[in-house]
Amino acid sequence: MTGRQTVIPFGPQHPVLPEPIHLDLVVEDEHVVSAIPSIGYVHRGLESLVDRREYQDFVFLAERICGICSFTHSSTFCQGIEGMMGIQVPSRATYLRTMWGEYSRIHSHLLWLGLFADSLGFESLFYQAWKIRESILDELEATTGGRVIQGVCKVGGVRRDVSNSFLSDMDDRLDDIEDEMKDLTNVFLNDYTLTKRLIGKGVLSKEDAYYLGAAGPTARGSGLDLDARNTGYLAYGDIGFKPVVEKGGDGYARCAVRCKELFQSVEIIRRVITDMPDGEVSVPVKGNPDGEYFSRSEQPRGEVIHYLKGNGTKNLAQFRVRTPTLTNIPPLVSILAGCELADVPQIVLTIDPCIGCMER
Amino acid sequence: MKMLKTILKQFVHKPATTMFPYEPLENFEGTRGHLVFDPSKCTSCMMCMKRCPSQAITVQRAEKIWTIDRFRCVMCGNCVDVCKFDVLSMEREYAKSATPTERGVETYEITYVKPERPKKETAE
Asked: Which of A50, A53, A137, A314 to mutate to test the interface with B (most CBs of B within 10 A)?
């Protein structure tokens, strides 16, 4: 029996949404038949500022595209300029970039885990997750000078060096953080309430994930081995890297990918610290970029692509960003069709939407 | 039983947060807190104004005035890097709060005087 169809608006203001996105949910009784997304609430026009700022200063603006994956945006932008100008970055700088990138991945995943617990009303777990995140942010602030917006990347390397003695201290502190994270992820993966809300909810098949263009943990949770770190950019080629892949395709699999990536990132940071080469951290940059470049890297939410076009002046001619959340919207729409109305907030959160990043 | 361990821990461990107004907030050595300007060294070269990504700094060369909008400043430290005369530096304390009427604008008069070039002694 089919009931009458009703359209229920979801967002742009909603308790589970940290950022504004609007979904028109077409429901029949309690079942969602389809979802129609509309975006564009926080568009700032950051990309068009390239013709008014010098390419070296735009790194700070590129970093502000997103408030969580800020470091990856700045390093991807610098990587693009360096590729266009043929600059060889010192290996210590690439190792430091890898380390900070992984620290920001841990802090982003912990932020998501906290927000997800909060969306279920599991307040104490939310505070536990953010307590661990705070110790990660302390490491970032001590080494780079900024908590969330680090401002440490520059064209030709990094702006700050970290002493080897400080690095070994960081390695020791990681042990405590790892123990705390083990307790935390144990709750996410085994707790009765959480598993009830995750297992079998919002299933995305492997084929759908591929054809709808899913990225990051959303794709890896559906069994797709898609990770830009496989390309071996920065120091990932030297360190060796194998992505975390789960086969379930449901919300639990996506949550499990993020939980396991926390420990993988800790492992990568340990490898980076032991293999850290000595030497300079930046090279002087002369001249202006000319040409085109596609720069790819793996954000906590998936693969980000920066397209840069220079015209031989100090301002870039064109700059375009494709963020992972934008590619995760079509899979989200396909997941939502057929789910229960009460599961919609949790399913929307399992793709880890970052709207500020998506609309720039 | 696992939960019991967590509950018992709550009674013995110290609070995870800092009791802020009673305990001073300690920043890390490398923290970029706020920008400090030294008016006695500034030569009004205007590099900080040109390279500021958020356009927080204004330099009026003729009037010898250096202005910063603390609300616009994003503490990136780019001006510190581009300044050739060591005029600007970063302090680790976070910038103080300001009222909306002040708009966080701070104005400094540049007191730098260009040293006179020693005159060439003409050979007699």
From this structure: A53
